[in-house]
Design a protein that fits this description.
The complex is a heterodimer of chains A (about 375) and B (about 280). Chain A has about 375 residues and is an all-alpha fold. Chain A has two domains: about 70 residues, no CATH class; about 230 residues, MetI-like fold. Chain A has 16 helices and two strands. Helices cover about 80% and strands about 0% of the residues of chain B. Chain B is globular. The two termini of chain B are about 35 Å apart. The chains are: A mainly alpha (about 375), B mainly alpha (about 280). The interface between A and B is large, with 104 and 105 residues.
């Protein structure tokens, strides 16, 4: 064996030795093997590459498509980097003519999703004729990068998107607060209950999470409907004569979000409350501190990491929630995630849907980064 | 200080459990309702279970969803274990910050964004490389593997950082290669964590409607997609029956798992007591 070629260091098994022997006979293969990472590197590389490919790059593509134009082609957007032969008709910015009012309707994803793929082979999107409007102009040859900011202009020009964003943040915020108000006493109660019970009580919190999310949201339709369980009960008791309209209101959306995300609030709260040193409370009591004051000055600050983690776990996904406002909300409970889905599935406007996605990300970037910061800090504290 | 719970906390705790289980209970009760008007009691019947079993669309979707969930959970378990191992054991490497970010972001990323971004990437890949040709089972599996692997990674990271590393060090001191150490020493210890990660990934995949809707194609309709499209039209007693079956299966599975786990725990405690007694 030629000296100097030991690509995997000393950790060579018989299998790798066979490959290195083979590599000695074939110089190009030897060069390729030299590029191979070590065992440690490989363990890092595989999940790394997967996440870059399926998590990071998709966002770059979303950003790219949000800057392209909507066309009636397959796929329905233009390329932003194109080679144009001289004299060819160029793509020019055209004002968006989408009808925003459609966004409240929306067809079920289950029936419309085929639209994305049923047109068989993909034509090159270079179909200038299909691009909406715009005057033709003569250009010289070469590569052109065309950023089309119209999708973003459109988001700002139409009140709908701003309102939906505001409404989503508002709804998510209120739901997070309600989750905290319900979740904190529950987590506190579990953490202070006899040790033998805690496992079971905690399991009972997690159990609904393992059953279908959709089905749990569905359950509320039967409860909140005009002839649903609550209204039937109240009418039977004689409290009300006419059913209270609860379905298709923001109230129903709050309940749906709180119900679905409550375990995410309780679990981190429980883990901080359970670790708490109870002698601190005893010391406070010995020094004459009233229980509620001790609670506010000792328990709550110590539970703060759990409060933050739980609130982030509820707030961030709730902002982009689609299923709950779609099933429980009314036409006025527009949330930004619902707008995105409707732009995509009903209007088939991929560039605007991408622009909405980027807008949601910008809205959520601060909470997400904060979440990661606290997550890392807690992990470092734990290890 | 800890002299039981105050009445106030106890009432709130019980109220919380009623809030969590009331709706589920109502689903189960009304699945046995004879009336098609789901919330008006008409008498006891199991006819909706019969209709459910004869519903081809739902049964096909169940099969497809179980297949997708099993494949994605397995992929997520392998990749998530690797990612968790990297996070727990490799303190320094180039791009660790990005890696940590990519593992924890999908946990909170709204489904609509994950779904849309993956779909646009699949379309882009198809344009450039001609793969994956169209969307369907494969693209759903890839999407689910991606968002499930981060949950597995978080579970595994937590388990691995609690783990006593002296066993692995002992094995390596005795000349065991790192790869063999992992498979012979580490893997058996973390196997329960991988299993619970797999189960979580399986459930998440089985439960997802938004990401699947974005990445699906003709002929690939998963169970949540069928449920969603029916539920939008209003209450449906068949869905109540389906819900009852799902809840029953999950509850039975968790009951069996917790009995097995507590038995294992008791055995371990007994072994430890025996070991302590023998050393005296």
């Amino acid at each position: 064996m030629k000296s100097g070629f030991v690509p995997w260091g000393e950790r060579m098994s018989s299998g790798t030795r066979f490959i290195t022997l083979l590599a000695d006979r074939l110089p190009p293969l030897r060069w390729l093997l030299g590029l191979l990472p070590s065992g440690r590197g490989l363990v890092i590389l595989i999940p790394y590459v997967w996440l870059v490919a399926f998590f990071l790059i998709p966002f770059i593509i979303v950003a790219k498509i949000s800057l392209s134009e909507s066309v009636t082609a397959q796929p329905p957007y233009t390329e932003i980097i194109r080679h144009i032969a001289s004299g060819q008709v160029s793509f020019a910015a055209a004002p968006k003519t989408g009808d925003a009012a459609d966004a409240t309707g929306g067809a079920p994803p289950a029936t419309t999703t085929q639209a994305g793929s049923d047109q068989g082979s993909v034509d090159t999107p270079d179909q200038s004729a299909a691009i909406k409007g715009g005057p033709a102009e003569d250009v010289s040859g070469g590569f052109y990068v065309k950023f089309n900011w119209d999708n973003y202009d459109y988001l700002f020009s139409d009140d709908l998107y701003f309102k939906a964003g505001k409404n989503a943040v508002f709804t998510a915020f209120i739901s997070t607060v309600i989750c905290l108000l319900i979740g904190f006493p529950m987590a506190y109660g579990i953490a202070r209950s006899p040790a033998a019970w805690r496992g079971t009580l905690l399991m009972l919190i997690i159990l609904p999470f393992w059953t279908s999310f959709l089905i749990r949201v569905y359950a509320w339709i039967g409860i909140l409907k005009n002839n649903g369980i609550v209204n039937n009960l109240l009418i039977w008791l004689g409290v009300i004569d006419d059913p209270l309209p609860m379905m298709n209101t923001n109230f129903a959306v709050f309940i749906g979000i709180v119900y679905s995300y409550l375990p995410f609030m309780i679990l981190p709260l429980y883990s901080t409350l359970e670790k708490m040193d109870l002698s601190l409370l005893e010391a406070a009591a010995d020094l004459g501190c009233r229980p509620w004051k001790a609670f506010l000055q000792i328990t709550v600050p110590l539970a703060l990491p759990g409060i933050i983690a739980g609130s982030m776990l509820v707030f961030i996904p709730a902002v982009g929630e689609y299923v709950i406002p779609e099933l429980l909300g009314g036409p006025d409970s527009l949330m930004i995630g619902r707008i995105l889905s409707n732009e995509f599935f009903s209007n088939r406007d991929w560039p605007v849907a991408s622009a909405v996605a980027i807008a949601i990300l910008i809205l959520l970037v601060i909470p997400i980064v904060a979440f990661q910061y606290f997550q890392n800090k807690q992990q470092e504290a734990a290890t | 200080m800890n002299k039981g719970l105050s009445w106030f906390v106890l009432i709130l705790l019980i109220g919380g459990y009623v809030f969590l289980y009331g709706p589920i209970l109502s689903l189960i009760i009304f699945s046995f309702n004879v009336s098609k008007l789901v919330t008006v009691w008409g008498g006891f019947s199991t006819k909706w279970y019969g209709e459910l079993l004869n519903d081809r669309a739902i049964m096909d979707a169940v099969k497809l969803s179980l297949w997708i969930a099993a494949v994605s959970a397995s992929g997520a378990a392998v990749l998530g274990t690797m990612a968790g191992y990297v996070l727990a054991r490799f303190r320094r490497f180039k791009g660790r910050v990005l890696f940590t970010g990519m593992v924890s972001s999908p946990l909170v990323m709204p489904d609509v964004i994950t779904g849309l971004s993956l779909l646009l990437m699949f379309v882009f890949l198809e344009q450039v490389f001609g793969w994956p040709a169209g969307r369907g089972k494969l693209t759903i599996v890839l999407a689910h593997t991606t968002f499930c692997l981060t949950y597995v990674a978080v579970i595994l990271q937590a388990r691995l950082s609690q783990l006593d590393q002296s066993l692995e060090e002992a094995a390596q001191d005795l000349g065991c290669r790192p790869l063999k150490t992992f498979f012979v020493i580490t893997l058996p210890i973390i196997a329960p964590a991988i299993l619970s990660g797999w189960l979580l990934a399986f459930t998440l995949s089985l439960d997802d409607v938004v990401i699947a809707s974005f990445n699906t194609g003709p002929g690939a309709t998963t169970l949540p997609m069928v449920i969603f499209s029916r539920v939008r039209l209003g209450l449906n007693p068949e869905i109540n029956a389906l819900a009852t079956i799902i809840i029953g299966l999950v509850a039975t599975g968790i009951l069996i798992a917790s009995v097995l786990m507590s038995r294992q725990e008791k055995r371990r405690q007994r072994d430890m007591q025996l070991a302590v007694a023998a050393n005296k």
